Amino acid sequence: MRIVVIGAGVIGTALAARLGGGAAQVWLLDGGEPGAGTTASSMAWINAHSKAPRHYHELAVSGMRAHAALVHETGPRAYAEDGAFGGMHGGAHGRAGGGSRAGWYRPGGALRWASGGPGLDLLHRTVARLQDWGYAAEWIPVPRARELEPAVRIDDGAQVAYFRDEAAVDPRPLVAHLLATARAGGVHVRTGDAARVVGIDTAGGRVRGVRCAGGETVPADVAVCCAGWRTPAVAALAGAHVPLVPGDAPGSEAPTLLAHLEPAAGGPPLTRMVLTPRLHARPLAGGRVYLEALDLNDEVDQHTPADRVAALARELLARAHHMLPAVADTARLAGGRVCTRPMPPDDNSIVGWNAEAEGLYTVVTHSGMTLSLRLGELVAGELLTGREAPELAPYRPSRFVR
To answer: Which of the ends of the chain has fewer CB neighbours closer than 10 A, N or C?
Structure first.
C-alpha cells in the first residue's frame, strides 16, 4: 500500500510517525516547513477541559494519556529544558542554554480562576461536569494557587480551580521529534514549495496519485488530508467536500489573536497554563509567554488591518500587566498576529474516509495538539489493518453529507 500524508503539522507528523516502519510505503508532503502553520501558533494546551459531548471528552482524555505515554517512552529529553518541572525529570539538564536537548513537554496542570459574574458561573459548571466525569478538577485556596504559580496576581476573593493532569507542549520540538521518528521508520519526507500539493489524481473514482508544485507525482493508493484549515481546498482537489468554518471569510470565528511576551531576566517565570475570563497565558521556550483572550478573538479575522492587530496586542499586554505583573512589567511585547484554526461546524473532529473519492481520508480537528498522538495511532490502525476504530465512529465525514 502507498500512503501519502498531506500536511506536516502536528496531525500529519503524528500519523506519519505511526505509519513508519509498517507494511506501507509512506510519503509526507508539505509546501512549507514542518509545524510552521497553525501548529506553530497553537496554545498547545493538552487538556479535555471543555470538550463536549462526553465521547469527545473521552477522546481528548485518551489524547492526554497518549502524550504522557510518549513522554514516558522518550524519557527526560521529552521535557522542555527551561520548564519549571524539567529538574524533576531531567536531573542535570538545567535550563535553556545549559544543554543541547530540545524537549517539548510542560507538565504542572492548569489554574483557572474567576471572581464573580458569568465567568465564575461557567467555571462552577465546568468543574462540576468534569468531576462528574471522573476528571482531575479540584477547588484550591487562593494562597495555594499563589504558591503553585508565584508569577500571577490572584484577587483574594477569586475562586480557583486546579486541573493537575493537564499540560502544555512546545509545538516545534514535538513536531521535530515526530518527524525524526517518521524518517527513522522509512517515511519519505518532502517539504518546501516544490512539495506543495496542487492536485490529487483519480481514475474510476479512486485516488491514484498526488501531484506536487515541483512537477513530481507521488503514486498513491491512499491520500490522507491533514491540511488544517486548508483541508476543504485540498479535499476538493479530489472532488470531496469537507466543511469547516471558512478561515478566510470576513468576520469568520476561525481566526484567533495571539501575542508573545519576552520578559527580562530575573523575574519569576510562568510555569503552567493559567486562565481567567480576560486572559489565557502559558509558558513558552526561553521564558517567553503566550497570550490570548477569547473576547478579543471576536475582534479579528484574516482581513483585520495591521494597526488594529497591533492595538489589540497592546490590550493583551495591558491585561498581562494586571494578571502577570512579575512577568509583564519588565517584558517586551513581541508583536501580535492572527492565526487561523481549523474549526469543524459542530466543533468535533472530522476523521475518516471521504465518500466522494475512494482512497481519500481526512483528519481535521480544532483540538489538534491534544488529539494528535491518539488520532495518529487510531488512524494508522485503520489504514494499515482496514478495521474501523469504534472510538472514531462519531467523527466520520459522512455526518456532513449534503
So the answer is: C
Kindly state whether residues 282 and 295 are assigned to the same domain: yes
Cα–Cα separations (whole angstroms), residue 248 to 30, 244, 280, 302, 346: 20, 11, 24, 6, 18
Q: How far apart are CA 282 and CA 267, in angstroms?
A: 16
Do residues 90 and 198 both lie within one domain?
Answer: yes
Report the alpha-carbon distance of residue 170 to residue 173 in Å, rounded.
6
Q: Above 80 in pLDDT, residue 201? A: yes
pLDDT band at 84 (very low <50, low <70, confident <90, very high): very low
How far apart are the C-alpha atoms of 280 and 291, rounded to whole Å?
Answer: 6
Q: Are residues 79 and 215 in the same domain?
A: yes
Claim to verify: residue 189 and residue 284 sit in the same structural domain: no
Angle at 327 between CA 293 and CA 332, to 5 degrees: 80
Domain residues for the domain of 266 are 110-167+248-340
Number of domains in the chain: 2
Are 227 and 8 a contacting pair, CB within 8 Å? no
Boundary of a domain, candidates 323, 340, 357: 340
pLDDT digits (tens, 9 = 90+) for 94-153: 333 333 458 999 999 999 999 999 999 999 999 999 999 999 999 999 999 999 999 999
- Cut 0.85: pTM above it: yes
The domain boundary, picked from 325, 340, 355, lies at 340
